[in-house]
Amino acid sequence: MLAIRGIYDGKTFRVLPTEPLPEVQQEVPVAIIFLEDIPFESQKRQEQIEIAARMRTAREAMRPLGMSVKDLVEEGRER
Questions:
Q1: Stretch (H or E) spanning 14
Q2: Domain count, the chain
């Protein structure tokens, strides 16, 4: 078994520049193992929905500013 460290950019694999490569003697089947889980699209979408819900909840918990953002900016300029 050989292990060659590399980089996967979503399209292609590249060997790390410092990684020694063995001399090619024959073709062999290859198994590629990702060390971190790659979430499926449905999982990504569900995570985005949950994050948006947490953001809405946090926004609703904030006290009102008491004036518009424009007025706050103008007040800050006058100081």
A1: strand 13-15
A2: 1
**Residue 1 domain-assigned?**
no
Mention every residue, 6+ apart, whose C-beta is less than 8 A from residue 34. 8
In a domain, 42, yes or no: yes
* Domain, as residue range, for 73: 6-78
Q: Per residue in 15-32, pLDDT tens?
A: 888 888 878 788 778 777
Full DSSP string of the chain? -----EEE-SS-EEE-TT---PPP-S--------SS----HHHHHHHHHHHHHHHHHHHHHSPP-SS-HHHHHHHHHH-
